[in-house]
Amino acid sequence: MVSGHIFHCRRNSWPAEEYVGRTALQLLDFDGGAPPEQAWRRKLNSDANLLKEFSVTFMEAMKMMTLGLRLWSYVREEASHGRKAPIDPFTKERCRPSASQGVPLGGMGSGSISRGFRGEFKNWHIIPGLCESSPVMENQFSIFVSRDGGNKKYSSVLAPGHHEGLKKKSDSGISSWDWNLSGQHSTYHALFPRAWTVYDGEPDPDLKISCRQISPFIPHDYKDSSLPTSVFVYTLVNTGKDRAKVSLLMTWANSIGGFSHNTGGHYNEPFIAEDGVSGVLLHHKTAKDNPPVTFAVAACETQNVNVTVLPVFGLSGENHVSAKEMWNTMAQNGHFNRENFSAGSSMPSSPGQKLCAAVSASTWVEPHGRCTVVFALAWSSPKVKFQKGCTYNRRYTQFYGTSERSAVNLVHDALTKYKLWEEEIEKWQNPILKDERLPEWYKFTLFNELYFLVAGGTVWTDGQPPAIDEKANPGFNQQKSSKRGTKDTKPESVKESHVNLTAEQIRDSDERSVSKFAAVHGSQMQEQTNGGLKSEEPIPYLISKDGPENVGKFLYLEGVEYIMWNTYDVHFYASFALLDLFPKIELSIQRDFANAVLYEDRRKVKFLADGTSGIRKAKGAVPHDLGTHDPWHEMNAYNIHDTSKWKDLNPKFVLQIYRDFAATGEMQFGRDVWPAVCAAMDYMDQFDRDGDGLIENDGFPDQTYDAWTVHGISAYCGGLWLAALQAAATMAHRLGDRHYAEKYKLKFIKAKAVYEAKLWNGSYFNYDSGTSSNSRSIQADQLAGQWYTASSGLPPLFEEHKIRTALQKIFEFNVMKVKGGRLGAANGMTPKGKVDETCMQSREIWTGVTYAVAANMLLHGMEHQGFTTAEGIFIAGWSEEGYGYWFQTPEGWTTDGHYRSLVYMRPLAIWAIQYALSPPKAILEAPKVNLMDRIHISPHMARAISEISIRKVAPDNRCFPSSAFKCEC
């Protein structure tokens, strides 16, 4: 653990008074209107430069040409079925990515909308796996101020009008609005899940305005954190001598981004709810039979605030009030007619017609007076549908039901509960923000990197089995697809599927769901094509017991460009955030993978890297991901390599299981997943081809660095394997399974000696034991196994001086020799101090890996090196002098700042740093004894292990009888 010394301290990175005048800060310092001292900041007139995407070198392109052709063919094949391939480097977004992002809206798993720091609503991620990045410019906040009996008037959209969609002011659309805000005196302050936009005398010189954006992301709150809603609190301070009438306007388009409004059939209706909440519902009919979405835009009427609405306006002026006419009404009157609340539902829109709605909140602000006006947005899309037919209820429906009209209740509760949310958010954040030992940049970057758990395409279901879409399964015509699982089919149908289940799993699963799903796909009896190969029915829905409380099932994408759910080799890094903040979700994900280990899916898949074919999922192998278009049923959407032959997935599974087991102290969780741990460990025997206890890599990129070839023993995979052996032995001992404890300890002893003898060169561990040109490269991630070992409270894998020496080598070479440590840690460096140019991944800086390396340094008392290493990601990605990757942190970048894969999961590994600084109570209070020393290896076991022949097939899942459990306490 880290020492108690003063950490790598810096002055306030961005003192608030350098962005907002001290007087304005003092005036706004009531009702939460002033931004916090620690926040990420930008002026609204800052340039949002276009980002530069990486490109492969000529030699890399030559090496990957055949892969590229196969991938292109696969992308076209998926498109012919109306699906998006999980990896598609050929289709570019219409809206080029720019340095314009900000804090996203809403809780987790119910669809997300991001908001740029200049105020635009963008990156629409309502339909799972589909992200529309371009902003909907009709969605705006605007202000109208009238003073001195109307002789002084100000009106403006509260965002700079820097967008190519805004044209001549003479048209009837939104270009006719007053885009008067320069942004020179307006600033954005971000501390996820909140953000503040401060207008210091814009557009009215005598008016200070703060807009505070609040979303219900509250650690350990498994209800409110699932809600699709956000609140916007406007704090108004009149510094002038005249009384001011201030009208705030929220406009919203009936759209889920892009050209979604073109489908037609959308309509709006006003509503009045309890407690002064009123607004407009916008009912959106989605394309391709996706579930509908209903938006609620509302404000809260009080004694001092009057709320009116315009349920419908259009852009052209045909059939409805035009955007220009709407604006003129507000500029002249500052409100709409009260009679609009009785207008009822509008006529459905025609194809191509965009319907918009407006909500106005008006108030008087006395000279030197203050006032608060509150708006809220909610979106209700209770069902989430995947492209191959399964539909689930989202998590929040457990509390609000499945009606689209629940948006009214969502927006009402947001407007009446947001202060309680803020109290909980501050209780969580303040201990870190007020810790004077921590660098200022670290404090707000730590929280802001959590944006991904909202904007990363997350899906959070109620945990119940899916409804089956009859259209997606044409052979299923015997039962109603809208119903949940029934008992119409006997459980024996499971045996007829091409899936292996243990008897215990069948008993523990929801038999209705399993039998229904097997019946659905078993009755098809028709073969589908998958990359030119025939496929059979998917595996049944993975049902897992989540302990005493069902917190539902959770999915998050590897990235918005890599559309695979819960990618496990990356979750290895990102999972520290969930473990710390939502541990029940983390355990639920682990149970899903534990169940998946024991399945086999024999459907054929073509692997694009070499063109060979194999089965989709081998029994005993940890899946790379839980799928794309049919998660939980059709895993391993990744098809570049055969991940059943990857060497890091199974050790990473065992390490994550033990870390979570140790960190939570959940003994029942340990018992439940132990059979899968045994199966995953035994599966790896086939890769120990010389019987020395250590696994070997196979001369292709068989691990998370899937373009970086490994030969023989790998520092990365071998180190993970060593750590997994120790973790499995310790877990076996704690669960009372003596046989496996002895077995894994003996293997660990043998493997450790071989690993050090073949890889340790006196200052670090070589990349691999082969003879290639990069075998002696310095890999930043070489001690990933030791990182997890230390994080789990286990004894170190190697002598402490070797660990610190290797980390110091990484710091001096991979960090400091790359632009003075201002980029993060390069994945590979040569012993001569040059970036390893072997492949595109060896020369990249991976953001999440850099955070992981920094956490490892902190765990071994290297505070200066750890924070300096992590600060490189802040400088390059988040600072004003960096590349503009805030709130879209990519997988990695090159030394010249070209990104690869924006909005990526792995940077959540910054929470591994916080985990190192503040380990879980169960780790801190664990007995300081080496449980490995308590495992006695009998002569009989030692002989038996040495005589075991190398296995060539997947292992038996029956690891031990249930009576073997004798828990160690």
From TrEMBL:
Occurrences of domain Glycosyl-hydrolase family 116 N-terminal (ranges): 102-421
Region feature (Disordered): 85-105, 465-500
GO BP: lipid metabolic process
GO molecular function, one term: glucosylceramidase activity
Residue ranges of domain Glycosyl-hydrolase family 116 catalytic region in the record: 552-913
Comp. bias (Basic and acidic residues): 485-498
Database matches in InterPro entries: 6-hairpin_glycosidase_sf (IPR008928), 6hp_glycosidase-like_sf (IPR012341), B_Glucosidase_GBA2-typ (IPR014551), GH116_catalytic (IPR006775), GH116_N (IPR024462), Non-lysos_glucosylceramidase (IPR052566)
Record-linked Pfam families: DUF608, Glyco_hydr_116N
Highest taxon of the lineage: Eukaryota
UniProt cross-references to SUPFAM superfamilies, sorted A to Z: Six-hairpin glycosidases
UniProt keyword terms in alphabetical order: Glycosidase, Hydrolase, Lipid metabolism, Membrane
Assigned EC number: 3.2.1.45
Catalytic reaction equation(s): a beta-D-glucosyl-(1<->1')-N-acylsphing-4-enine + H2O = an N-acylsphing-4-enine + D-glucose
Family named by the database record: Belongs to the non-lysosomal glucosylceramidase family.
Role according to the record: Non-lysosomal glucosylceramidase that catalyzes the hydrolysis of glucosylceramide (GlcCer) to free glucose and ceramide.
Protein name per Swiss-Prot or TrEMBL: Non-lysosomal glucosylceramidase
Taxonomic classification: Eukaryota, Viridiplantae, Streptophyta, Embryophyta, Tracheophyta
